[in-house]
């Protein structure tokens, strides 16, 4: 007897319908899975055999053939266990559906006892299934909240294979799952709350963080150990606006595919990723036999912070050059080529030399010029040129440490950033971009008012400071953001001067 049941898979950030056909015929007892399955899918027949028996059903002692169509897409993952088990029960006549299954998809991993385990990528698959016309989705109870983010889908959360079989035969006994709103998916844990005012002194660096947050400009902090570089960078997310609904869904999809959602609702707070300096290039930008999102995609619409940037492998750093500029990363493998979003704010920190005291007026540097050159040589000139704000962070003086109050709070700075973002949005919405960091030189000429005196000033600076063409454009972008923060319609000489300061001080 032949049965047909629907499931789903995802490749990159896209979901695809998988039609699972099961045929049981006479012959020596065997179970074959065809349709380009990987090892985890091939192993599912052993999990299914045990789950079927432990759920009170008989596993047929016949020739079983399971076909997963389309056959030219590689299938990987354990979420085909449930549809394969149900297909065997349907084909063997042990259960019969009370209604058509044409609009229902089944997803879930089975334990040997027949219980269902949570799977990753449910949000991406639920979105794709809805677009393909499916009205119902049956999945593990732990994934109900994730699938319920997709409006218009009936979501049935079940605990075991026996529950799924009962659902097919008696659908009236089950009600589509409902979810309580838990707020932001990556809300910070309880404990001390980070605030920009915790940082004593370093007003110049705080101002640079504000500009970076307002225009999504990349930033690097360079200074001696203990000057507060990491402390400043960790407070950067506290001045970023919350994600809008479209951005939140994009980020949540990425975390769902990476298996990092873990029961959370929609992620509304910009992500903050801090990979260790031993990270490989593939882990940073994404990869694998079937490519998966890397750290730069997990930082989408948020911050990617590289602490002690020169300590990262040069190959990993050079892999950032293209996504920093294009806001996307394309990963090519033999089996497939995928593009992942990577619109992130790159924040980095570095010591000025291996010992950390070059330029320090209190401690003597022990490094030779060659040591310093070799140390910073790990960061290529083209990559450094893509970092908009290069900020010197000096040693904190005792007078600053003894102060009780230290400038604006994160909430106050965040309000200023939100106002500047609104100005940018109203100016750029017809261009399909959101931030000043995305402006091209043509956009600046067309829609950004720059005074003639300011243009003459930046032209002189371009010649005297030997800026690159990219550096010239980035100075104009920075100046535009500075003017937006101050509420000015046009860019003036003061804005250009401040922007130049951040380009050359590092």
Descriptive keywords:
4-stranded mixed β-sheet; 506 residues; Rossmann fold; Ribosomal Protein S5, domain 2; 37% helix
List the SSEs and their pairings:
Layout: E1 2-11, E2 14-25, E3 30-34, H1 39-42, H2 44-54, E4 63-69, H3 81-91, E5 104-106, E6 109-110, E7 116-117, H4 122-131, E8 136-140, H5 144-147, E9 154-158, H6 161-169, H7 203-215, E10 219-222, H8 229-234, H9 245-257, E11 272-273, H10 281-285, E12 286-287, E13 292-293, H11 295-298, E14 303-306, H12 314-318, H13 321-326, E15 328-332, E16 337-341, E17 345-350, H14 369-376, H15 381-385, E18 389-392, H16 398-401, H17 410-428, H18 441-447, E19 449-450, H19 452-464, H20 469-485, E20 490-491, H21 493-504
Parallel strand pairs: 3-4, 5-8, 8-9, 10-17, 10-18, 11-14, 14-17, 19-20
Antiparallel strand pairs: 1-2, 2-4, 6-7, 12-13, 15-16
Helix pairs in contact: 2-3, 7-17, 19-21, 20-21
């Amino acid at each position: 007897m032949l049965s047909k049941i629907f499931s789903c898979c995802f490749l990159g950030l896209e979901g695809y319908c998988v039609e699972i056909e099961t045929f049981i015929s006479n012959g020596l007892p065997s179970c074959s899975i065809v349709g380009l399955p990987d090892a985890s899918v091939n192993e599912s027949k052993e999990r299914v055999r045990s789950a079927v028996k432990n759920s009170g059903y008989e596993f047929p002692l016949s020739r079983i053939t399971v076909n997963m169509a389309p056959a030219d897409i590689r299938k990987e993952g354990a979420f085909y266990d449930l549809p394969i088990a149900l297909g065997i029960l349907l084909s063997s006549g042990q259960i019969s559906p009370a209604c058509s299954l044409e609009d229902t998809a089944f997803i879930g991993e089975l334990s040997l006892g027949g219980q269902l385990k949570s799977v990753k990528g449910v949000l991406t698959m639920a979105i794709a299934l809805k677009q393909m016309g499916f009205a119902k989705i049956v999945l593990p109870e732990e994934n109900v909240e994730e699938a319920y983010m997709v409006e218009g889908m009936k979501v049935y959360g079940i605990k075991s294979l026996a529950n799924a079989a009962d659902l097919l035969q008696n659908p009236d006994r089950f009600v589509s799952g409902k979810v309580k709103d838990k707020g932001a998916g990556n809300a910070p844990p309880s404990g001390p709350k980070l605030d920009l005012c915790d940082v004593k002194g370093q007003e110049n660096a705080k101002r640079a963080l504000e500009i970076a947050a307002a225009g999504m400009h990349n930033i690097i902090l360079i200074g001696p150990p203990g000057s507060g570089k990491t402390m400043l960078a960790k407070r950067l997310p506290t001045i970023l606006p919350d994600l809008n609904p479209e951005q939140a869904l994009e980020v949540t999809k990425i975390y769902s595919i990476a298996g990092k959602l873990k029961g959370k609702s929609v992620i509304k707070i910009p992500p903050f990723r801090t990979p260790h300096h031993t990270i490989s290039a593939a882990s940073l930008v994404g990869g694998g036999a079937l490519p998966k999102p890397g750290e730069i995609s997990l930082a989408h619409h948020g911050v990617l912070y590289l602490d002690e940037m020169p300590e990262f492998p040069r190959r990993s750093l050079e892999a950032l050059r293209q996504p920093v500029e294009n806001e996307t990363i394309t990963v090519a493998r033999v089996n497939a080529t995928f593009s992942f979003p990577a619109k992130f704010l790159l924040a980095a920190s570095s010591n000025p030399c291996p010992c950390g005291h070059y330029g320090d007026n209190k401690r003597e540097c022990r490094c030779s010029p060659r040591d310093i050159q070799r140390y910073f040589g790990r960061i290529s000139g083209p990559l450094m040129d893509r970092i908009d704000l290069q900020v010197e962070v000096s040693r904190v003086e005792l007078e600053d440490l003894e102060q009780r109050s230290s400038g604006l709070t994160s909430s106050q700075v965040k309000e200023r950033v939100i106002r500047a973002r609104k100005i940018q949005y109203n100016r750029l919405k017809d261009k399909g971009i959101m931030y000043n960091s995305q402006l091209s030189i043509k956009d600046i000429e067309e829609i950004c008012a720059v005074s003639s005196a300011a243009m003459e000033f930046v032209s002189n600076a371009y010649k005297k400071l030997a800026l690159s063409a990219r550096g010239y454009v980035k100075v104009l972008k920075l100046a535009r953001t500075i003017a937006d923060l101050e509420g000015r319609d046009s860019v003036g000489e003061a804005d250009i001067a401040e922007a130049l300061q951040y380009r050359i001080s590092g």
